[in-house]
Sequence to fold (252 residues):
Amino acid sequence: MAAPVNRFKARLKNGESQIGLWVGLGDPSAAELCSYIGFDWLVIDGEHGPNELRDVIAQMRAIGSRNEVIVRLRDDDRARIKQVLDAGAQSLLIPMVESAEQARELVRSVRYPPEGVRGMGAGLGRGSAYGSIEGYVATANAQICLLVQVETVAGVAALEEILAVPGVDGVFIGPSDLSADMGYPGQLNHPEVVSAVEGALTRIMASPVAAGCLSFDRAVAERYVALGVDFVAVGSDVTVLMAGLKSLRAAF
Fold:
């Protein structure tokens, strides 16, 4: 037996555009509800969402096979990466990547030797079906999808070097943090921010690496899709719930 096929990664390689949703409430029932809607992928947010390892596992179980799951970690900590992979995550989004060296170390973190330094303990976790997938270790590397998040001026400046790192499957541009780092916090529609974001996406799309971004503004998200961005997040459980509740309250 081999490690499960990562459908999200396979679709990226096939050039298929994929639409996703952020899951930030940290609740398995909310994640389960989102999984029935038909998005291509869901992000379990371990950076800003209230998620520890057991919370992530509970949400992955609730989502099941209905959606491809991406787990965003809080940072590039190698030990946490190992735990989340052993827990069954196959696609990781790592925030605040600013250099090719950092990207290279992330590639090493998500892969077993000799390609990397991921610790040998998968038999204890659900990623290998608790050791019942006999060929897991030999086949896991090929199914891991590493997405790095570039969201600072320094990261954008190093973009070409990051894109050249073997093993980086996608680069996700984070417009909110980038706008703040540029001196325009919260001003996602500032002309300089728009230019920086779309310029970075264009550079990624000119490479073999997949390009990703998010916007909770429908018109902006549609523009990203029209540009040909490979994976676009178009909302979150938090923002959709809040908007729906405000709309309902306003109606009465």
Notes: Residues 7-251 form a domain with the TIM Barrel fold (CATH 3.20.20.60).
